Amino acid sequence: MSPNFFDATTVNLVAIAADIYALYIAVVVAFALPVHWRFLNFPPTAIYNRPPRILGRFQVPPMKPTTIVAFQVVFVSALVCAVIADGLLHKLSLITALVAYFPVFSAVAGLETNARKTYLIPLFLVVFIAAPNSGGNWHSESVYWPIWALKLLICQIYVSAAFQKLRNHGVGWFSQSSLGVYLLRLDLYEDNPWARKLNSRPHIYKPISFATLCFQATFWIVLVIPITTPAYLIFGAAFHIGIFVLMRINYLKYLSGAYLILLLDSLYILLPNRHFYVLLGL
Amino acid sequence: MSIDVLSNLYGPAFCAVLLAVLVWISVVGRDRWPFSCYPMFSIKMDDRHLSVFSVALDQGEGGITRWKPEFHRLPRAFDKAFRETMSQAAKSQLEAMGKGGISTEQRALFAMIAAGLDENETRETEAIMLVRRRFQRGSSGIYSLDEIPVLRVPIAQLRHSP
User: Fold this and answer.
1) Do B72 and A182 touch (CB under 8 A)?
2) Widest CA span of chain B, in angstroms?
3) At CA A61, angle to CA A55 and CA A67, rounded to 5?
4) DSSP H or E segment with residue B133
5) 8 Å CB contact of A5 and B12
6) 3-state helix, strand and coil shares in percent for chain B, rounded to the nearest 5
7) Record: contact A44-B113, CB cut-off 8 A
8) Smallest CA–CA separation between B133 and chain A, in Å?
9) What does the pLDDT profile of chain A (282 residues) look like in tens digits?
10) Angle A120-130/A145-169 helices, nearest 10 degrees?
């Protein structure tokens, strides 16, 4: 099966995606609660006194740590409720989670695993809220376009990142040692053993930078040729694991939820109907 | 238009609006939470960026150790904040002269760090230091690290800070 934008899906792929994503984010945020609590109560984190504004305009008012944690509990509960519930209650739960997201992540935006890494969460929730039948039965037929919209959101991360690099540097981005300087700068802050190891082999930066730019700049292909999704899923996972090892930047904590959607889409594309249904217990 | 036609247009219309917003945010190159242009690692970096302000704890006979808080991105936030105070240095130089060589803003930053030290660290630490850490490229192209203490504030002074 290689679905296109206007196709119907033989199973309710949107409902499966909504349930998987909501459950994944609920579990991750629930496990992050102790870290968030320590972060909120650690005096030096007061340095992050300029949280992002919603749409660049609206500031979430400062709140006590207990209030923020209460919002986190609401956020997690709403996501769990969205998984369990159908129909209107499912949509209301997603809307509650969307509203709770902003006070929760405004307060802990300075945490290294958060900031831009959580930006997909509210956008995915908006797609699930807008998608018809996102809280329906997994067995029923559905439309494919919400999955396409989710892939578009993932795609924008990489294509825009490539565009910013090309805008600032031109195609010369991969031909210079900028990556090496990034690693060394990271080493100045928090000891990065890779920076010094790679410093003696500077020729390695060029292929890494070239591969990064190729991967990011071509990610849009998954939107027009869905069969390429499994390949980009594998490249993407390898790319983020590489970033985590080299730079201690953990994008995958929250982005894995989005990658699960790519995995679901890949399985739907690759597997024959019968095997796909068996895999999901349908 | 019939309901069928409208429902057929709903998906494409939703995706078209989403696509337009995402293209706009990428082209404009700004962040509008939760939209972002994802500018990470797009800034041109060269050797001039290989100099940062780092916080260290002077533990007397225990030596000088780097401040390594649980939240490992904090040192870069303090680097940025100290950098801003340095650019204000000329402005607050007179004020600083009368307060042991540091400005009010710098003292506030040191006090913030001191408040985050646990009991053991507070007991063992004599002073908090600001150290300039810098990589310098040698003639062979290999970088070497040098560290220059810039500021030192006894922890007792910070405990009595307002």
Assistant:
1) no
2) 83
3) 120
4) strand B127-137
5) yes
6) 50, 20, 30
7) yes
8) 6
9) 567 777 777 788 999 999 999 999 999 999 999 999 999 999 999 998 788 899 999 999 989 999 999 999 999 999 999 999 998 999 999 999 999 999 999 999 888 777 889 999 999 999 999 999 888 888 888 899 999 999 999 999 999 999 999 998 877 776 656 788 888 898 899 888 888 788 777 788 888 888 999 999 999 999 999 999 999 999 999 999 999 988 888 999 999 999 999 999 999 988 887 777 777 776
10) 150
Contact B77 A110 (CB under 8 A): yes
Q: Which residue has the tokens 């195609």?
A: A171
Bridge partners, B66 (sequence order): B56
Considering only CB atoms, B15 lies closest to which of A149, A165, A181, namely A149
* Chain B residues whose beta carbon lies within 8 Å of the beta carbon of residue A119: 33-36
What's this model's pTM, rounded to 2 decimal places? 0.91
Tokens, residue A172: 């010369």
B41 secondary structure, DSSP code = T
Kindly state the tokens that stand for B54: 């780092």
Largest CA distance in chain A: 60
Decide if B60 contacts B123 (C-beta within 8 A): no
Of A185, A118, A105, A177, whose CA–CA distance to A153 is shortest? A118
The answer to whether residues B37 and B28 touch, using CB atoms and an 8 Å cutoff, is: yes
Residue holding tokens 């990034």? A182
Give the tokens for residue A272. Answer: 């024959």
Do the chains contact at B71 and A55, CB–CB below 8 Å? no
Q: Which residues of B touch A38 (CB under 8 A)?
A: 70
Residue B64 CB contacts under 8 Å (≥ 6 apart), including other chains? B56, B57, B58, B129, B131
Strand, coil or helix: what is A232? helix
- ipTM (interface predicted TM): 0.91
